Amino acid sequence: MTTHAHSREPHAHDAHGDGDHESIHDHGQDAHGGHDHDHGHDGHHRGRHDGHGHEDMLEVEQALERIIAHFSPRDAVELPVLECLGLALAEDVTSPLNLPPLANSAMDGYAVLHADIAAANDTAPTLSVISAVAAGQVSDQTVTRGNAIRIMTGAPVPAGADTVVPFEETDELERRRTGTPLDEIAIRKALPLGSNVRPAGEDVQAGELVLPAGTVVRPAEAGVLASLGLATAWVIRRPVVAVLSTGDELTTVGEDLEPGHIYDSNSSSVAAAVRAAGGVAKIIGIARDNLDDLHRCIDAASDSDLLVTSAGVSKGDYDMVKDVLEQRGDMNFWSVRMRPAKPLAFGLINREGREPLPLLGLPGNPVSALLAFEMFGRAAVRRMLGRDLLARPTVEGVLTGPIFNSDGRRVYARVEVERRDGTWFATPTGPQGSNILTSLSKANGLAICPSDLTRKNAGQAVKIIMLDWNEELLLARLNTTCPSFGKTSAEIAHPSDLVKEIRTHCAGDTEFIQSSMPLQEIVFRTLLLQGGEPMPLSELHTELTEKWSTPIRPITLTVNGLARVLDSDVFYGFAAIALEEPEPEEVLDSARMLTAAGTAEDEQLARILEVLAADDDDEDEDLLGEDDLDDDDEEPPEEDEEEEAE
Ligand SMILES: Nc1nc2c(c(=O)[nH]1)N[C@H]1C(S)=C(S)[C@@H](COP(=O)(O)OP(=O)(O)OC[C@H]3O[C@@H](n4cnc5c(N)ncnc54)[C@H](O)[C@@H]3O)O[C@H]1N2
Ligand code: MOO
């Protein structure tokens, strides 16, 4: 059994960024100007009184490098293919067979000799059908000149035959219709030699290296393994990560909360993060702030690959965590130049007769704990899983709200990341205190304010660590108060009901229209909130420039400019509705264009448009208020990118 030399894993998400923002390979200690003030060598604690002053601080990359150095891929195990999902193959997989094993047919049709059909046309040839072969059978007959064998998709091509003619190119249907026997068949079309024959070994040849060691098993690889007849594979096993919370103030979830207590959330969040990273989480529970209990809990974790604790790593009256850890092994207590999650412990706990157990001591604050696990624990788990890519991918984006940095640490701000018109936007999700877990729950990314800046302002470029490429998170936020949200168009009784629903339920929804939306989307949603009532162009213009224009996304165009933007629309159907007497044909054209865009949501929108247009039939008033256009002779606005993009 060999462990792999390097990982091959899908990097799909990484296509959006350099992906190794926190890569330990990129940041040697020297890269940080020698600010490494840890005077001991790795693994030696510096006593418990080393302060958390900035002069002692490790950069994130330094801490990561020191931690990762203690982890290596775990041993290999043989598992059923399904259990291998997400795990790296521990050895090369070579094929024991040809795939397909025999040449077989790609179509239902007739296996023939090419020489017989090379000149086929509407009148000739007619071949004798000597037998039939279905998938799973092997014909014992040979196709000779003038003969054909009826064949099904996937069935081995009989000896002699070199080409398969699909039913559609024969007179089979005609024969069936007229009751003519199928012992003969007319071939109507000449096909190239080898047509519709899949050669043996076309996909994989016996002995070929199919999946190199390190390949991460995804559904496609599970299929490949099964197609080779392999029910199991050797993979690098999941590391077991023991999760331990510490603190007298903690109550286990499900129990009654005592006065002054809080629920232990770190056990759940960290265990979930372990599992999400591919490890097996073993929840030890809560260690109380006394020596015996802590010893007992560490003992309970002793058969794991990593022990992750939370709390007790900063300053405080209950330093016994530090004492115990120091007694039982070789611990470092670090300050890392990051916010949240400045205090961090890492070291090795001695185990009898075994290599020491690595311990990662996360800070107690719930956000700090999860974020520190994200930065350091997840990387350790991935290293143990045999992954090369240890960090999350990053993207470059634009901030829509400020991030503040009060004390020279690198700030990881919780943000919601969205892509609009080709740009990633990062919006802080609310209070950033290290106890505010809900703002982490709302986030799908972490935007970075470097340690040497005191703030990053809205509109500035920012590096974002993508925690989740979570479209659902964004979708769910779009208009949660609208009852029809999430329904398929088939479930909506009538489009006019939908418009009514939007009007009733989304009018007060502050998220229904957002200033960061494309201009036309804002107009469209404004019209939806009108419930299908036409709206003069001047009013729309006022809405846009006074309500939805922001310093980050100023809307400066004139009424004329707006008219041009809306006229050029081919998506929302404004132009059609703008006509004094709407022509149903054109409205439908717009509707069709929306439908052609392909999503269920677009289909809904198309139907809404039809209703809006139908309502317009009765109106004399011009939706886009063409009167406004005539007397507006301002210069055309500067065309901003947004308008061009539409
Ligand atoms: N004088 C100083 N005080 C603090 C400093 C400092 O430098 N000087 N650092 C602060 C920072 S930053 C952090 S982060 C915390 C880390 O403290 P500890 O790791 O020692 O953790 P505790 O003080 O025990 O707890 C902090 C906080 O988190 C709550 N907690 C703990 N465990 C859990 C859990 N399992 N589930 C939910 N919540 C938990 C705990 O009740 C506290 O509120 O120290 C600052 N102080
Ligand atoms: O590092 Mo602490 O996590 O700032 O709250």
Automatic annotation (TrEMBL):
SUPFAM superfamilies referenced in this protein's UniProt entry, alphabetically: MoeA C-terminal domain-like, MoeA N-terminal region -like, Molybdenum cofactor biosynthesis proteins
One annotated Gene Ontology cellular component of this protein: cytosol
TM annotation in the entry: none
Sorted UniProt keywords: Magnesium, Metal-binding, Molybdenum, Molybdenum cofactor biosynthesis, Transferase
Molecular functions per Gene Ontology: ATP binding; metal ion binding; molybdopterin adenylyltransferase activity; molybdopterin molybdotransferase activity
Catalytic activity field: adenylyl-molybdopterin + molybdate = Mo-molybdopterin + AMP + H(+); molybdopterin + ATP + H(+) = adenylyl-molybdopterin + diphosphate
Record domain MoaB/Mog: where: 242-383
A GO biological-process term: Mo-molybdopterin cofactor biosynthetic process
Its job: Catalyzes two steps in the biosynthesis of the molybdenum cofactor. In the first step, molybdopterin is adenylated. Subsequently, molybdate is inserted into adenylated molybdopterin and AMP is released.
PANTHER family in UniProt: GEPHYRIN, MOLYBDOPTERIN BIOSYNTHESIS PROTEIN
Name this protein carries in UniProt: Molybdopterin molybdenumtransferase
The organism of origin for this protein: Geodia barretti (Barrett's horny sponge)
